[in-house]
Queue: 2 jobs
Job 1
Amino acid sequence: MPDVRVKICGLTKPDDIEAAASAGAAYGGFVFFAKSPRHLEFAAARSLALYAPPGLAKVALVVDADDGFLDALTATVPLDMLQLHGHETPERVAEIKARFRLPVMKAVGIATADDLPEIGRYAQVADQILIDAKPAPEADLPGGNGLAFDWRLVAGKRWAKPWMLAGGLTPDTVAEAVALTGARQVDVSSGVESAPGVKDAGKIAAFVAAAQAAKAVPRI
Ligand SMILES: O=C(O)c1ccccc1NCC(=O)[C@H](O)[C@H](O)COP(=O)(O)O
């Protein structure tokens, strides 16, 4: 079975790109959300994207972005994927995919079993689904909160599109999360930081190694 693919989200410095790429991550995420400690201006993101080696797919994380914002973003920063982390409807996901001609990953927040049908709804239009913890209503950030959800909710489930498990994963928990859910892709931000917005190269290496060593339980 191929290695679990890892996305390291919230890269802000060239050192972060090096840490993610040398650890063997498949994706690097750039956050465009002003309130986030990981927020990047377009010029900084462009420099990081140009610095990234070919094996690291460059993912831009945006929240309820309008076409003007996305026009400017995609004209400035060379990207491989857009991650939609707001309240974008399935119709808006389809519109963004058609207009910007980039693969689109839609984040879906999960707290209880009642949230699961959303995954299937978005799987009809998005290229990938990021299955994340649903933030608390009073949270400042719609993601990147280091909050986990009950992984048993998605264990053994199948959807029409590739999906990535996210939410509060750490180097110590990712193997168990993969074994329990069967995830073939995982995403992390807070769990590989030494402080909010500050990535830790040692934690990135430990996370990728633990994810890739993990054995997903095959499900029928
Ligand atoms: O990281 C942020 O600051 C952020 C801001 C706005 C929307 C989403 C954001 N992050 C999402 C992620 O980093 C991940 O895709 C995911 O939520 C996992 O984060 P974490 O629980 O911190 O590992």
Note: Residues 201-213 form the longest helix (13 residues).
Job 2
Amino acid sequence: MIQKLQRRFALSRQGAIDLIKGCLACVLQDLSFMFPVGLLYQFVLDMMAGGVNGSRILFYLAGCAACLVLIFVVTWFQYNATYLATYVESGVRRISLAEQLRKIPLSFFGKKDLADLTNSIMGDCATLETTFSHYVPALFGSLISTTLVAVCLLFFNVKMALAAIWVLPVAFAITLFSARIQEYFNRKAVAANVALEKGVQECIESMQDLKAYNAEHRYLTGLYRKIDESEKRHIVTELGTALFVVSSTLILKFGIATTALTGSVLLIRGEIDIPLFFMFLLVVSRIYSPLEGALQNLAAVISSRTNISRMNEILDHPVQTGSKDLTNKGYDIRFDHVGFSYNTGETILKDVSFTAKQGEVTALVGPSGGGKTTVSRLAARFWDIQRGTITVGGMDISKVDPETLLSFYSIVFQDVTLFNNTIMENIRIGRKDATDAEVLAAARLANCEEFALRLPDGYNSMIGENGCELSGGERQRISIARAFLKDAPIILLDEATASLDVENETLIQSALSRLIKEKTVLVIAHRMRTVSGADKVVVLSEGTVAEQGTPKELLQSGTIYPHMAGLQDISQSWKL
Ligand SMILES: Nc1ncnc2c1ncn2[C@@H]1O[C@H](COP(=O)(O)OP(=O)(O)OP(=O)(O)O)[C@@H](O)[C@H]1O
């Protein structure tokens, strides 16, 4: 049962146990509200039997006090079991989502974008927080307690009980039958919301380009359309829910009328007495009010299914696993008949075989879209391949735990990600336990000193969101400093100096040549100068290795490589 609850509501084991406790607490709370009704019924009986004397007054005073204490204790227990436990579970859920996202292969992120994931971690979690603190325990609580009360009523008088409770299955049936419709509306509303969030995020991120091309107005018109769509979807969802909930609630109100009517008839016929009639009227006035709330809760629980299934999609996604034991001998990277495609299904690599040897620089070259970046990412198991094997020092990387494997790699990406923190801390990302002296040494090797010391607080200067206060070359050098600090045996390098000025380029090139000494280096080379200094060149074209060899060999015997070298010579002589 616990496992079923976990799966059904995207809960941790403790969360499922707490949910059961919360439901029981709500049952107890609803039942505790019936005690004053019983006391009142007894009081009416006493009054009709001739009044209440001294000892009975004490009995009723004690009864009132006992009811108050009982309600207080049970409510306190209910509060702890529902609200507090739910907020703890909410924290656990967000952490497990984040943990799962860390282990999921990058292919998953091709299907989901940032806005969608943020919506799951923040929006869906917040919705479930409210659902599990306010709705689910109260719903189950009132369902169970109402059933218990209904069974008790049957013992008092079957006809009166039926007159009071016939509305319950009808009201619930209406809400349950509407579940699919409500879910449909809610799915559409969530999709419209995610589309809107994506639009807003994209708009903020691309503001610079929109301004540069006077495209703000056009873009904002599209965004306004998304806002309207989201608003419309939410109104329709609310109206749909309200329609069914109001209908069910109206049915419940009929219960009071049928109880009163049946009671009057039975009273006239002499089948029941006044106290029993009175007790039924008291009970129906109590059992319907938590049920009205429960019906609204049921609607909310139904619509939260969309949020739960979005969350389960992340939690159930297979993660990359593997052994933490490393059996490699050396650090040669070997691609053996590798075939690969992204989520789109289009084959990107058909049959790629080459070896990047330890202590050598292997340059990946080829036409744009030929698969150079893909190959370098596959070498670090960012994705799992569909055919062939990739080994490091003879060890199949698909069998190695991804985090353990990454300890072998320093990666210098073209797009450097920096954090809104100091230069010092941004470099320390390379190795979190590095001392300040080690960070500074790495920074010096990567030529960061030149710009860091110009800033007001030196290495302790904040660099803004994603390093927005730094130039492209400075960002790149921080990335290289991280790699120095990590000092991993394999370097994956996306040579990204093409867009930099000569001074920056020289600084970065000199830092890189220090970094790659005696390591296995796989470099995505964009310029022939880098390639000519490489030990080996692998030309990737149309998903296969078209040519490979030393730069000299390829210049003599290749076709694509000499052609690319020729083109670059021409482009270097171009003038504006
Ligand atoms: N995450 C992704 N999802 C789907 N397709 C992708 C993804 N990344 C790259 N591709 C596709 O894979 C092919 C190879 O891309 P890749 O970036 O590896 O080429 P490249 O040789 O590095 O190109 P460039 O020199 O222009 O950077 C391209 O057709 C590209 O559209």
Note: The chain is about 65% helix and 10% strand.
